[in-house]
Amino acid sequence: MKPHLNSATDRKWRPEYPVWIGAHRDLSKSPLGFPGKVQVTGHVQVSEPDVNPTRIRLDTSGGFGYLTACLLRSADAEPEFISSEP
């Protein structure tokens, strides 16, 4: 899938790199994998951290309420999540 021609996303599009934060929502649903890298994002609210081999989504509050952070100890370690929720 490619961005809409002449859109802001199209002007920044790099086919060799996954979709980035702020990209077109249809593109953001399934970002391309980038070997050895994981994309950590916010800006799309999720009820709990969403983790897959390509991306970690962290925005559990939508900018209102508690915060969630992710600790990545190494490339092979499972992510650890820290929340400001009481």
Polypeptide structure, described:
A hairpin with an 8-residue loop joins strand 4 and strand 5 (80-83). This protein has helices spanning 8-12, 25-28, and strands at 39-41, 50-51, 55-57, 68-71, 80-83. It is α+β, with helices and mostly antiparallel strands and 86 residues long. The model has no long low-confidence stretch (mean pLDDT 76). The chain is flat and about 45 Å long. Helix content is 10%, strand content 19%. The strands form 2 sheets. A 3-stranded mixed β-sheet has the order 1-3-2, with no helix packed on it. The chain has a two-stranded antiparallel sheet with strand order 4-5. The longest helix is centred in the N-terminal third of the chain and has 5 residues, at 8-12.
